[in-house]
């Protein structure tokens, strides 16, 4: 779309507000985060057809070819009325990955379903022996005619029990260095040979699973980015995941905001405590700094680009969540030793403290983010990797 044919921000804002006023009536409550209600799917399809779901995408793929500043106007108006569906060109990992790396046939087959949530996805990356070093995965994919046959094990997979597809990193060549022998696939999950077993977290929830794969098949055209280019394809998908996890604007359960902490300090008579006030100021400053850093990263990263700066936001959000958990625990004092529904405040605080570790580990550990920042942002020397340049078949196995 040429600049002359673009609407102004104010024109677009009026358009979106008018559309929402005539179409948005709310959605019934749906407590399962791993499935989508029929009403939600129907609404997301309306948003998609209006061009608001992925406005930066090309018109042929449900977008409008808008620049990021106009896309932001749409997100703001949807957020103002608490309507879902906009901004998926920033946060929909499978859709964005397919748009960047998928074939025309694959985009025609699945892009709409991913954007409307008719098809749900999970991420099959980490393995018991390859979590922090994803280049060392040992799940294999062997080409057989018009499909690939996959065998291996994955772990820490969210949503695997209900997913229709999975983004999968697997080894397709054992005779080249580890980063060069990987390929990236879109694996159909609803088939024999895939066994999903839930893992119980320290919070008592079971958001994660281990997945055992035995002779599962992947159609040839579900290979993303070409054979042997899996590491580069994986970085594209990880950039979106880290953007989500580092974004202060996307709240998760019980994630406290600065004003909640201030109210809690006031309620417990601690707001005038100089040490508490300093801790509150630190949290507010970290949140503001992270928001500015995220804005910088998103302004400099092109659609589908793996931005190392995203690691700063991801690492910062981890630090913020831990700082808020520590402060909440300090504010409620000895009652933090209590738990259960009869102690809702303590239960909330303890959940926050335990759940903060999710961001420290999921999407790449804090240690991995520090390595990325040190090497790719600050230009520091890389850590030595004895197995980086040898055929993976020769690499030491744990």
Automatic annotation (TrEMBL):
Gene Ontology cellular-component terms listed: plasma membrane
Note the SUPFAM superfamilies from the entry: Acyl-CoA dehydrogenase C-terminal domain-like, Acyl-CoA dehydrogenase NM domain-like
**Taxonomy, superkingdom:** Bacteria
What GO molecular-function term can you cite, just one? flavin adenine dinucleotide binding
Which UniProt keywords are present, listed alphabetically? FAD, Flavoprotein, Oxidoreductase
Q: Which InterPro entries does the entry link to?
A: Acyl-CoA_Oxase/DH_mid-dom, Acyl-CoA_Oxase/DH_mid-dom_sf, AcylCo_DH-like_C, AcylCo_DH/oxidase_C, AcylCoA_DH/ox_N, AcylCoA_DH/ox_N_sf, AcylCoA_DH/oxidase_NM_dom_sf, Mycobact_Acyl-CoA_DH
Q: Where is the Acyl-CoA oxidase/dehydrogenase middle domain?
A: 122-205
Acyl-CoA dehydrogenase/oxidase N-terminal domain: residues covered = 9-116
Q: Which Gene3D superfamilies match?
A: Acyl-CoA dehydrogenase/oxidase, N-terminal domain, Butyryl-CoA Dehydrogenase, subunit A, domain 2, Butyryl-CoA Dehydrogenase, subunit A, domain 3
Q: Which cofactor does it need?
A: FAD
Keyword Protein biosynthesis part of the UniProt annotation: no
According to the entry, every stretch annotated as the Acyl-CoA dehydrogenase/oxidase C-terminal domain falls at 228-378
Q: Which family does it belong to?
A: Belongs to the acyl-CoA dehydrogenase family.
* Entry protein name: Acyl-CoA dehydrogenase
